[in-house]
Amino acid sequence: MADERKLPPHDITPEAFFVEWVPQAIERDPERRARLGSDAFALQFEIEGDGGGVFSLEVDGGRARGRSGAHEAPNLCVSVDLEIWRQLNRGEVSAPMAFLRRRVRLRGDLRLAVRLHVILG
Q1: CB 77 within 8 A of CB 106
Q2: What's the rounded Cα separation, in Å, for the pair 19 and 23?
Q3: For the chain, how big is the Rg over CA atoms in Å?
Q4: pLDDT tens-place string over residues 25-84
Q5: Is 26 exposed, middle or buried (0-12, 13-18, 19+ CB in 10 A)?
Q6: What burial letters (b/e) apply to 57-83, b meaning 16+ CB within 10 Å?
Q7: Which residues face 41 on adjacent strands?
Q8: Residue 35 has what DSSP assignment?
Q9: If we measure between CA atoms, which residue out of 5, 102, 17 comes closest to residue 56?
């Protein structure tokens, strides 16, 4: 269940989060894999600020693969500064509120934005 999911460490780097933590969390969670279904898409995360960077997640068939660097053709790009990204990970701010306050910017297929909670946990 969603309430039982393990949260990422508070001090996790964006690289470790997208390259290791998210793919492993999805792999360990059959419910989350089932909710992702057989869809295939690519996400790009642009974390702005010192310690940030650009990271990509490719989701296909209920599995995710993360890597550092830009994706050649992402379906959705998410831009956020490092401090807001950390607050989102800690649950201190909700994604909808951050979006409404223009702290998170989205480009591309916005239908995927409503699935980010399944992907990122």
Answers
A1: yes
A2: 7
A3: 13
A4: 999 999 999 999 999 999 999 999 999 999 999 999 999 999 999 999 999 999 999 999
A5: buried
A6: bbbeebebebeeeebeebbbbbbbebe
A7: 59
A8: H
A9: 17
From residue 66, alpha-carbon distances to 19, 59, 97, 112 in Å are 4, 9, 26, 17
CA dist 47 and 27 (Å) reads 24
Specify the range with the lowest mean pLDDT, choosing from 3-7, 23-27, 31-35, 106-110: 3-7
* SS3 of residue 102 by DSSP: coil
- Residue 4 buriedness (CB in 10 A; 0-12 / 13-18 / 19+): exposed
DSSP-based three-state secondary structure for 3: helix
Residue 92 Rama label (left phi>0; alpha psi -120 to 50; beta): alpha
C-alpha distances out from residue 24 to 3, 32, 119, Å: 17, 12, 11
Single-letter amino acid, residue 55: F
The whole-angstrom separation of Cα 30 and Cα 50 is 35
Which pLDDT score is estimated for 5?
58
The span from the CA of 107 to the CA of 69, in Å, is 17
